[in-house]
UniProtKB/TrEMBL annotation:
Keyword Transmembrane in record: yes
UniProt superkingdom: Bacteria
Claim: Membrane is one of the keywords in the record: yes
Keyword annotations of the record: Membrane, Transmembrane, Transmembrane helix
Pfam families in UniProt: DUF4229 (PF14012)
Parts of the chain that traverse the membrane: 12-33, 45-64
Protein name in the entry: DUF4229 domain-containing protein
Taxonomic source organism: Streptomyces daliensis
Amino acid sequence: MSSSTSHATLRYTAMRLGIFVGCLVIVAVLAYVGVVPKGLGRSNPLWVVLLALVISAPLSFVLLRKQRQRMSEQIVSGVDRAKTRLSANQSQEDSVA
């Protein structure tokens, strides 16, 4: 496994979290300044988090396309290795029995 795909899932997750945190900070500042509605009553924190999620999801989808592809390749490679090991173990059991 190459080093570029060895930690693809961890890298993708960290980048996705970073985009969300960035959106959260921006939305919180905009809500504090009054550009974005603050929500109703005490719902401000929940409103800010939900708005940040809604904004960060499409951004992550577009910005992390290559990283998502690397993560997919890593997962497919791992599943293929597991299938190969399972097949080898089953054939060993069949030859012993």
